[in-house]
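G., the chain you wanted modeled:
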Amino acid sequence: MSEKWEQYSQKNYRLNSARQATITLTLENTLALLGEKKSGRLLDIGCGLGEIDILLAKNTDFAIIGFDISKKAIETAREKVRKAGLENRINIEEGDVYNLKYPDNYFDVVTSFGYVSAATYPGVQRGIVRVLKPGGTLICDFINCLSFYKIFGSLKRLINRNSPYYLSLSGIKREFKKEGFVFRKQKIFNTYPPLNLNLSPKFFLSFENIFGRPFGWCLARVRLVCFSSTRK
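Predicted structure as tokens:
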């Protein structure tokens, strides 16, 4: 598993302009889903290179722990945190999503990004419920399988994997409810084409601003979902 993610991190964590735009939109939509909740302890599962953690620290008062299975990603994330002067606010650790080492009822918020994020893996939610405080918030992203860009891939998943639950919002609600989470709200975004074009991030953000509202339902590639823990 670790070797797989080392290879993935080297291939997919390049900060091109489209990914910069995606990080910006992820932050904006996460803050919107959090609402007035801007302090406490936050755990970011599969933190990658730590860019979103740094932005969250700059825009909230959370004490943040980010962890990843990739040693290379951890090394880079720690350096980015150091350069940002946020070592007192963000702690980057090596971790396994299936073996959360944190105490019960410890975090106010858990986040996980990555399209489909680590928090959406089967069985992981039980550990997240345990480390979250009762009524705590989980925000994680999924592929929006209804996106025009993703229809072909969604059909392949349907044929090859016996109806993955994340093909629909109703499936997501159903599966997370089994593990102690209730759906609160969602945001969909990333309406621009999945192309590595040599353009400014402003181009992608402008595309999102123009086409996101009228055509988000059929173009947006990311479904960012907010849940609350029902554990008492």
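Confidence is low (pLDDT under 50) at residues 8-12.

Shout if anything looks off.
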